[in-house]
C-alpha cells in the first residue's frame, strides 16, 4: 500500500495547508503515536473546540464547511448531526464510527486507522462534544487486526493523557471510547445493520423511520459516521470553513479533499489525498501512472465494486459526486479500479455477484433470490451455456433490484456494475449464449438459492 502526495512524481510534499488528512504521516509507514501526534499540532483542534466553541457552534461549523460522508453515500455531515435531539434531558446518546470497510477495492479507512489512529480519536472527541454523546464505539472490520491493535493502544494513550474519560480537558464533559471488532459481514456497513450487530443481534438493516438519531443503539439517539468523515473534523475546526472550502477544485460541488486511489494493472497502484474535482484522467495517468506495459485500459470503476463501469473516454469526468453522476454512476468510496483488456466482463461480473449474493442479509425477497439468480445466469453464460433471453432476464433483475425496490441499498449497489457491463460490453455476454438455444420465459428457469 502506498500513499503519495498532490504532485505528479511525488515532487510536492504534503503540508497542513493542503493535506489535512495525511500531512502527519510518517515516511516509513509506521503509526503516529500520541507524543508525535501532539508535536504535529494534534489535539489542538479539540482544545479549541472545548475551550472556545459552544456545542452548537461546532455543528454549524461542520455544516457550513460542506463536509459530506466519505463512506459512499455522501450525506451532509452537519445536517446529519443536526438531526440529533436538542432535548437536554436525554443524557444517553451514542457516537458510532463505521469502520466496517468491506467494500471490495477499498482500503482508505484502514490506512487512517493503522497510521493515524489519534486523528480518528480526535475527530470523534470533537464530534462527541458537539453531539453531547457520552460514549462512542469504533465498529471495526474484524479482519483489520493491525488497526484494532493500533486503535486500542491509541485509546489507552488518550485516556492516560486525560483526552478521554472523565472531565476531559477540565470541561466537565465525559466521553468513553471503545473499539468493537465485527464478525465479518459486508452488510454491517449499512448503519442500522451495524447497530443491530453492535447490540448482539443479527446484522439486518432496520426499517427507517425511525432514524438512528431518534432511535439508535439500545434505543437511544445515535449518530453514525465513517472513519474518513470523522478524520476531517479536526482540520475544519482548527483552520476554518473558508480554508476547507478552498481546497476543492473549481467546479466541484463537494468541499475539501478526498482519499482517492487506483488499483488493477496500473504502474503505480496506491492511495492519495487529492482535492475534490480532480479528473479521473489525472488520477489514472499522473498518480497511478497509466496501465502497465502490455496492457490496455478497457474500463474502470470510480469508487468500489458497487459502482458502475465507465469507459476510458469517461476519464475526463471530475472526481466528485456530481461529476461522476454526469457520466452515469456514483463516486462511491473514491477508490477506482482499472480493468485491463485481458479481462472477460462476464467472468468479472460473475465473481462480483457471487460476493454480493453471499453477503446479502436475506431479509427481502428481491435481494435474497434475485442476486443468486443473477449468479446462476452469469455462470451459465460464462460457460457458454446461456440461453436466449438470459441477457434480458439479467437486465430485468437490474431493474427489479434497483434503488427503492429493496429494503436497503445492498442490492442496488450489487446490480449497478452488472447493468453498466451489459450496456458497454453486451457482445461479451452474447458470446456466451448457446447458438441453438430456444427462448425460455424468464420465470420458467429454475433458481436454486446458493447454487
From TrEMBL:
It catalyses: a quinone + NADH + 5 H(+)(in) = a quinol + NAD(+) + 4 H(+)(out). Its EC number is 7.1.1.-. The keyword Amino-acid biosynthesis does not apply. GO terms for molecular function: 4 iron, 4 sulfur cluster binding; FMN binding; metal ion binding; NAD binding; NADH dehydrogenase (ubiquinone) activity; oxidoreductase activity; quinone binding. The keyword DNA-binding does not apply. It is an enzyme of class 7 (translocase). Composed of 13 different subunits. Subunits NuoCD, E, F, and G constitute the peripheral sector of the complex. It comes from Pseudomonas fluorescens. The gene is nuoF. Coiled coil: none annotated. This is NADH-quinone oxidoreductase subunit F. Keywords: 4Fe-4S, Flavoprotein, FMN, Iron, Iron-sulfur, Metal-binding, NAD, Oxidoreductase, Quinone, Translocase. NDH-1 shuttles electrons from NADH, via FMN and iron-sulfur (Fe-S) centers, to quinones in the respiratory chain. SMART domains: NADH_4Fe-4S (SM00928). Its cofactor is FMN; [4Fe-4S] cluster. Residues 346-391 form the NADH-ubiquinone oxidoreductase 51kDa subunit iron-sulphur binding domain. Belongs to the complex I 51 kDa subunit family.
Amino acid at each position: 500500500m502506498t500513499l503519495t502526495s498532490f504532485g505528479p512524481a511525488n515532487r510536492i510534499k504534503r503540508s497542513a495547508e493542503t493535506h489535512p488528512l495525511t500531512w502527519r504521516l510518517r515516511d516509513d509507514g509506521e503509526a503516529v503515536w500520541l507524543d508525535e501526534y501532539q508535536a504535529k499540532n494534534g489535539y489542538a483542534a479539540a482544545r479549541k473546540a472545548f475551550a472556545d466553541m459552544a456545542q452548537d457552534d461546532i455543528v454549524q461549523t461542520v455544516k457550513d464547511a460542506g463536509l459530506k460522508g466519505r463512506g459512499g453515500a455522501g450525506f451532509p455531515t452537519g445536517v446529519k448531526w443536526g438531526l440529533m435531539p436538542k432535548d437536554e434531558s436525554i443524557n444517553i446518546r451514542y457516537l458510532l464510527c463505521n469502520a466496517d470497510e468491506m467494500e471490495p477495492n477499498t482500503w482508505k479507512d484502514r490506512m487512517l486507522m493503522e497510521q493515524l489512529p489519534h486523528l480518528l480519536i480526535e475527530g470523534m472527541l470533537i464530534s462527541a462534544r458537539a453531539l453531547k454523546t457520552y460514549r462512542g464505539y469504533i465498529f471495526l472490520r474484524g479482519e483489520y487486526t493491525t488497526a484494532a491493535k493500533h486503535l486500542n493502544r491509541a485509546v489507552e494513550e488518550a485516556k492516560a493523557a486525560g483526552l478521554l474519560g472523565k472531565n476531559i480537558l477540565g470541561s466537565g464533559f465525559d466521553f468513553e471510547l471503545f473499539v468493537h471488532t465485527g464478525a465479518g459481514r459486508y452488510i454491517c456497513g449499512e448503519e442500522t445493520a451495524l447497530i443491530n450487530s453492535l447490540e448482539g443481534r443479527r446484522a439486518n438493516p432496520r426499517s427507517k423511520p425511525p432514524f438512528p438519531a431518534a432511535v439508535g443503539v439500545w434505543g437511544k439517539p445515535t449518530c453514525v459516521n465513517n472513519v474518513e468523515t470523522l478524520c476531517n473534523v479536526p482540520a475544519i475546526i482548527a483552520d476554518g470553513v473558508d480554508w476547507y472550502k478552498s481546497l476543492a477544485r473549481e467546479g466541484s460541488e463537494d468541499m475539501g479533499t478526498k482519499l482517492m486511489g487506483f488499483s488493477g494493472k496500473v504502474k503505480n497502484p496506491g492511495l492519495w489525498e487529492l482535492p475534490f474535482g480532480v479528473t479521473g484522467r489525472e488520477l489514472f495517468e499522473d498518480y497511478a501512472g497509466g496501465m502497465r506495459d502490455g496492457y490496455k485500459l478497457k474500463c474502470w470503476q470510480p469508487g468500489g465494486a458497487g459502482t458502475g463501469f465507465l469507459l476510458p473516454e469517461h476519464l475526463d469526468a471530475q472526481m466528485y459526486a456530481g461529476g461522476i453522476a454526469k457520466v452515469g454512476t456514483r463516486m462511491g468510496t473514491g477508490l477506482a479500479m482499472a480493468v485491463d483488456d485481458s479481462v472477460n466482463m462476464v467472468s468479472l461480473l460473475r465473481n462480483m455477484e457471487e460476493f454480493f449474493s453471499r453477503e446479502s442479509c436475506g431479509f427481502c425477497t428481491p435481494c435474497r433470490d434475485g442476486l443468486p439468480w443473477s449468479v446462476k445466469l452469469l455462470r451459465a453464460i460464462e460457460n457458454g451455456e446461456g440461453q436466449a433471453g438470459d441477457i434480458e432476464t439479467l437486465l430485468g433483475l437490474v431493474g427489479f433490484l434497483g434503488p427503492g425496490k429493496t429494503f436497503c441499498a445492498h442490492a442496488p449497489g450489487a446490480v449497478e456494475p452488472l447493468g453498466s457491463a451489459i450496456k458497454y460490453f453486451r457482445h461479451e455476454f452474447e458470446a456466451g449464449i448457446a447458438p441453438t438455444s430456444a427462448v425460455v420465459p424468464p420465470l420458467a428457469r429454475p433458481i436454486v438459492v446458493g447454487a
